[in-house]
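Notes, Module 5: Reading structure tokens.

Key idea: the token line is not a picture. It is a compressed description, and you learn to read it the same way you learned to read a sequence, by spotting repeated patterns. We will look at two proteins. The first is printed below with its tokens.
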Amino acid sequence: MFGKDIYWYGVQAISLLKSGKLHSPDNSPVFHIVALLFRMFGVSDGTLFIFQTLTSIWLITSFFFARYLVFSGKDNPQQRFNFLPSILVFVLGFLYPKQSWALGFLALSFGFYSTTATNKKPSLALAKISFFSSSLFQWVVSGILFLVALWFHPMVALLGLGVFILYQIPEKFYLFIFCFGFFLPFLLPEDPSGRFYSEKENFPLVAAFALAGPCILWDWTFLVFGSSPPKFRRMRKALAFFGFLLLFPVFHFADIQYRILLSLILLNQIYIQWNILQILVWMVSSGLWIFTIFINPNQFRYSYEEMWIPGESMASVPNNGLLVAHHGFCEYYHFQFNKDCLSFEPDAKAISELPKDTEIYRAVYGIRYENLLSSKDENKKPIFSFIKPLGDYQLVREQDWKKYRLSLEKRNSKLLLVAKSWKNPYKERPDFIKRKHTNGL
């Protein structure tokens, strides 16, 4: 399976089928699509693959139709059918399905809006009826599609709103906005528990390069510096300037701006004019993405094949009430074995929900069994009262793991870099995620 979040969709859908509500509060209807597919084809990895494929088909269809609307006027009507789907359609469709469904609706919203903004009537069968060819109808449809995008994924809708605002602002004010964006990270609080804060550890374009390699730099360059037909110049400038503003680190997660960047690159596909140069750009982009996926697949998926045996053993421990593990293992473990798992440091809420007579266990990743076995406290006594070796993973009690991590801090051990990394979660759930569990938003 490709996709680092795909099993989470399965967890949410299974919860819908069993209890009628989501495992984690979320207003997006995308999980209901997965639940419907589970009803039709059964709960399995294969059904999740069908969902990812369906998501990619939706993106291709929506972007094709959006381009059809945009180029439906008398200028270059042949461009309506000139469409080569970017490989990002599949990258987004498989990695970020919820975002992809919302992005498809946003693209259609942009398509209907563009027909009003350029004073062109879409050459559809409905255009024969005066109301359906009117600007009012196109505005209404564009607004409805925007609200559907908001329903599927608020971040994508806010992205669309941001592009629309930049489109309305005269370009002479872009320098002022750029200066504000430059100083914004210094004005934000240094609070990792918030959704927005000054992220000085990761420069967004560098983080994007680390996630996807040179392919993302290639696409970013043509997003910011590429050209388009004159009638779409303002919209292209808005998309390009938004992509340029993503240089400034303002979001909590390092890859949020990366996801926004992918969406902007795809939205740009609506307005480009296909010619020989654009086909060459498309070929290089596709080649770079395929090469990156081939040589570094772990950037796009976890090693799920190596998770079955340790996951099955961990799930069989009788008093294992909650497992703490890295994000990818947690989702796979929860989906395959229907056992609770948390990819954060256990907080008061997680401890209060622990079933009676059970304990919290930790799936340690990246530290050898021998290192854990030989670890001792200040009194020369073994730190771990229970260790179950499972290949790349070691199962220990959470309370013992905290003592071990503290001992690494005192000794300033090199293993601390592994013990406090994504491989072994050490931070509590951020405040905005806690609010989501409390309020559903």
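Here is the second protein, with the sequence above and the tokens below, as before.
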Amino acid sequence: MRVNKMSCFPCCTSQEKLNKKSLKKSIKEYQQEKSVATFANISLKTDGGNRRFLAEEIAKFGKGNITSKVFSYKELCVATQNFHPANMIGEGGFGRVYKGHLKATNEVVAVKQLDRNGFQGNREFLVEVLILSLLHHPNLVNLVGYCAEGEQRILVYEYMANGSLEDHLLELTPDSKPLDWQTRMKIAEGAAKGLEYLHEEADPPVIYRDFKASNILLDENFNPKLSDFGLAKLGPTGDRTHVSTRVMGTYGYCAPEYASTGQLTAKSDVYSFGVVFLEMITGRRVIDYSKPSEEQNLVIWAQPLLKDRRRFVQMADPLLEDNYPVKSLYQALAVAAMCLQEEADTRPLISDVVTAIEFLARKKEVDEPLKGTPQSGVDSCKHNEYDKNNDGNNKYDNNINNSECDRDDNSNENENDKKDDDDGISTKL
């Protein structure tokens, strides 16, 4: 039985509802009515005409709901000390990100200067301005404003003090402290809630299309927020089952059906979430050419391990130093395995993933023993509110709660070892 998510989360405010309606009337019209030729014409206009054109487009399709501030290039030069290299805090295919200070508001911000020769063009710039101006959620980064002066395409975000998840998971310096298990689950929960909002709260739904560790930003308390919406697409509506589009994103994170056919659905984002969640559990990059050939692709490396219960602990990030609850490890691997299934239809909805990870994020180490400590598997694996709303027939709930948790009851370990030796995480839904 599908859990009614509206009973689990606060209703959207009236303003958010208005924003959803605005999104439906604006970005949808924008993507349906504007041709590629129109975008190409933007770069051919004079500086003044170019600036006016972008302002008119944002005003037109934002339906008057765009509250983000319009910055001049000079203002942002002052804020970043002329984009001084010492202020650079990130770099990618889109361009560079600088830490800046807005004197007028005494606000610290992150200033993303898009590379004119990079992956993000005028269309991506406009889509990001529209989406982040019209949709608001605690797990989506806040857009402070933008600059479209001359050939400059600059986005100004709230400053996230702890950088990206990638910085703390995959780019650790020798003096960096690894993320503990509970913090990882907290980050996974918030990131999943951001996707849930895009998939199930936004109207029409939004497919993120670029879910990866470097796009998950962390505030001073390690609360996660999704960023970089230039590749986002409006999801299918009505009788449509998918959106057909050219394949974009980052190698390794793309769902197999999307990579091979260009058919995009919300389940494509679920697959990408599974990849990142597996990175969080293992501390490994999805693609790492520094490892032996058989271990370079994280998903391929993990597949045989997920089929053998005795090898689950081999998948835990060594930097955790065994400081994690073993049952939570098993449950987390179950969630990742379901998200990573080849067939999109057999993957869970992101709302079901949120429910499962909420349970893992709520568990405290003091409440659950660390690896190897006896405890009843049945009692430790109940989903609290989720179970109350579930009649026991939910395929995801059964898979997560029962397939692994019951097996780990140490009182029956010896008796069941022979029977369960070849049992991995069940992903047959």
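Summary for the second protein:
- The first strand starts at residue 69 and ends at 70.
- Residues 9-158 form a domain with the Phosphorylase Kinase; domain 1 fold (CATH 3.30.200.20).
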